[in-house]
Design a protein that fits this description.
- This protein is an alpha/beta fold and 218 residues long.
- It has a single domain, classed as Aldolase class I (TIM Barrel).
- The protein has eight helices and eight strands.
- Strands 1-8-7-6-5-4-3-2 form an eight-stranded parallel sheet.
- The protein is globular and about 45 Å long.
- Bound molecules: D-xylitol-5-phosphate and zinc ion.
- D-xylitol-5-phosphate binds next to strand 2, strand 8 and helix 7.
């Protein structure tokens, strides 16, 4: 099997927003991407941040922006201009006939384009764009909040996707810690979002190193 590069993406949702850039500074040398959760209070029952805060982020590492919002096509330009490297939209909110145009638009804005689905969705929902996207994000919790429990039912879906797309970046998000990362990596995921497992730790660099080691050895 192709061994895809392991990437760790700390989620700033679990950071202290009052000193966000300081928090990012602490983890960015060890991280591959900085995961930014955008929530609109409609697609998910929580509201987080918008383009001005994304713009205020000073990070050496690329911003992996996860749009948990309805009508993402209306906002991708603002997030691209705010400095996003990757924009992930949800398959649940963009009908099939509009996805390719949205992916094209995101690319024209200079970003990578990725798609995500919730833990209760089958891969068939996004099969139409698997050859078009840069990454697929399989949610391993229902989006909205950090600190939830990893949903193991998603594991067969990770395996199925890896079998279909040997070299695609497969990201998992939700409940990833030093133990669950092994399960997800073994199934074929290679990009790992982790909020609580990193930001609740005193030694965050060490927490990231441990996650990486456990994924690489799985
Ligand atoms: C959940 C967000 C996640 C969240 C993960 O809706 O999309 O990115 O920050 O947090 P943990 O790693 O704490 O489950
Ligand atoms: Zn996320």
């Amino acid at each position: 099997m192709v061994k895809n590069k392991i990437k760790i993406a700390p989620s700033i949702l679990s950071a202290d927003f009052g000193k966000l850039n300081q928090e990012i500074k602490e983890i960015e040398d060890s991280a591959d991407l900085i995961h930014v959760d955008v929530m609109d209070g409609h697609f998910v029952k929580n509201i987080t941040i918008g383009p001005p805060i994304v713009k205020s982020i000073k990070a050496k590492k690329p911003l992996d922006v996860h749009l948990m919002i309805e009508e993402p096509d209306k906002y991708v330009e603002a997030f691209a201009k705010a400095g996003a490297y990757n924009l992930t939209f949800h398959g649940e909110v963009v009908p099939k006939e509009k996805r390719k145009d949205l992916i094209k638009k995101i690319r024209e804005l200079g970003c990578k384009a990725s798609i995500s689905i919730n833990p209760d969705k089958e891969l068939s929902l996004i099969k139409d764009v698997l050859d078009d996207v840069d990454m697929v994000l399989l949610m391993t919790v229902f989006p909205g909040f950090g600190g939830q429990k990893f949903i193991e039912d998603v594991v067969p879906r990770i395996k199925e996707l890896r079998k279909l797309k040997p070299s695609l970046d497969i990201e998992v998000d939700g409940g990833i810690d030093a133990e669950t990362i092994k399960i997800a990596a073994k199934a074929g995921a290679n990009v790992f979002v982790a909020g609580n497992a990193i930001f609740t730790q005193k030694d965050r660099k060490n927490a990231i190193d441990e996650l990486r080691r456990n994924a690489e050895n799985s």
